[in-house]
Fold this sequence. Notes:
Layout: E1 9-16, E2 19-26, E3 32-39, E4 44-45, E5 50-51, H1 56-59, E6 61-64, E7 69-76, H2 77-82, E8 88-96, E9 102-110
Antiparallel strand pairs: 1-2, 2-7, 3-6, 3-8, 4-5, 8-9
Amino acid sequence: MPSELEPDVFLDVVFEDGLLFLEIGNATLRPAELVEIKFGQSFKGLGGSVDFAKLRLFKRIEYLAPGRRIRALLDSSAAYFARKEPTKLTATIRFRDAEGKRHERAVTHDLAIYRDLPYVVQPCVTAARPTIPTA
């Protein structure tokens, strides 16, 4: 468990209104630097069009401010599970504190816990389609 004087970077899965998000955050009042997240396996999101394990977001965040969170839409839960994407996601999180000390932690998330959760489908307000970045 990190002390209050060390940054604590986490990777979480957020289920909200039938959507799955991956969230990177710094849970402390200290900055984190050179944040890297390496996944144990490949998995695709956004309709199967994006390999999330290869996104630049997870390769390197130069500076993650205290209390900062970055949330990325993975997919709708229905689409993710219909493609039979991995439900157990393992990741190794590496980062440094302001003094250069290295920190590392491993996490495992079981997305299967969200498979059968009911949710209300919200009516679409606009017909605009989200932009999917290409590498």
